Amino acid sequence: MYDYYLGGKTNYRVDRDAAEAVIQSFPAIPTVARVNRAFMHRAVRFLAAECGVTQFLDIGSGIPTEPNVHEVAQSRTPGSRVCYVDTDPIVLAYADALLTSSPEGRTTYLEADVSDPEAVLAAAEEEGGLDLGRPVALTLHALLHFLPDDRDPYGTVNRLLERLAPGSYLSLTHCTGDFAPGPWREIVRLYTEKGTPAQVRSWEEVRRFFDGLDLVDPGLVVAHRWRPEPASGPSLVGDADVSLYAGVARKP
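Above: the chain sequence. Below: its structure as tokens.
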């Protein structure tokens, strides 16, 4: 569905039908997807170029859509290592596109579930080639709204961060119903009905994921307002059309 929102071709009739139902409820949902993608590009460039991060753990990577995290990071720091994680077997089928790497760097793909953080981190070390004793950028873009409260999302993020070295970063985006509560209640219903439980959260609830971390400027904001750049995705849109919070924070 996300690929369809982005105008991609790696989707199936069932995805398109479900996505069109969501679009009927909230016509701006393709804008949400494009803003999310543009934020990812800006955040990864910031982490690689300005923060000196050379290791990235991207959980919930989704179907490859160029440029991917490793392409953005390695364009700034060719030696960057990027480990992708997802549970969707469809993603596995297209994972070859995630495994191209600069000669100096490395990219890997792991099939693992974020609900088992210890297994994810062990695989990232053993198979993904990440050194958790050095700073890692943990990217959770458009993932946590698919972890309802009964799946312990806050505990999951805390357990992931506990193992990461000081100087690591968390970058995340999260859908919200703060600006258009009615349509987002319907979107949650549609996703849940199709077998993908979801839960949108308020600014205060999303801010909790950053507890104990140092948010970088401009803090937790609607995604198109996070360090906007010319031609870096939709910008002249309203907060309600975006309905996506974004932030980057450093582990002290």
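The first strand starts at residue 55 and ends at 59.
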